[in-house]
Predict the structure.
Amino acid sequence: RDGIRVRADQTGEPIELRAQPAATASVLVTTSGGNPIAGATVLCVDAEGNPLGTLGLATSGPDGRAWFGGMPRGTARVVGRAPGFAPAASALQELGPDHAIEFQLALTSGTRTTLQAFDRSGQPLTGAQLTARCDDGPWLPSLVLIERLRTDGGFDLGRLGRGAWEFRVNHPKVGNLTQQRTIGDEASVTVVLTQR
């Protein structure tokens, strides 16, 4: 149990609590043409794609803006997506105490994509974690990649942008599986990863 228990007849040394100055950040989510996108899910991550802080997840409002507060100092970027758009990542910026940073995130349309992962016997790898990156860019976490889990154990990734994608599936029993796939202007793409 956390906390301090003090009896009425007990005295002790004073306890001093100090708040650490934290960074705040905003993100403007737009189409590639500059129109604001409402309802985009955005996540503040470090350079390796790990979520930052305790308030690092937000949704853009009608003006396309979202805010993050209480962010730790360090290098960060924003990753995000909106229904009907491909996920994207902003440029890296340095967060510091008492700094207000603005990220820009321009989303484009893309190709409808599904991903399926199987073990050696052909069974779906349910419960797997997924990350992916495009053109050797930052790794995108499953929170912004997966639109829904399919009943057959696959992942519906919504739309992904054009480029050379690398997919990484991690499963507790089989470890990491990776697959590279170039996505262009196809109507839809299915990516299949199979344990070797």
About this structure: The helical segments are 142-145. The radius of gyration is 21 Å. Residues 128 and 144 are 15 Å apart (CA to CA). The chain has a mean pLDDT of 88.
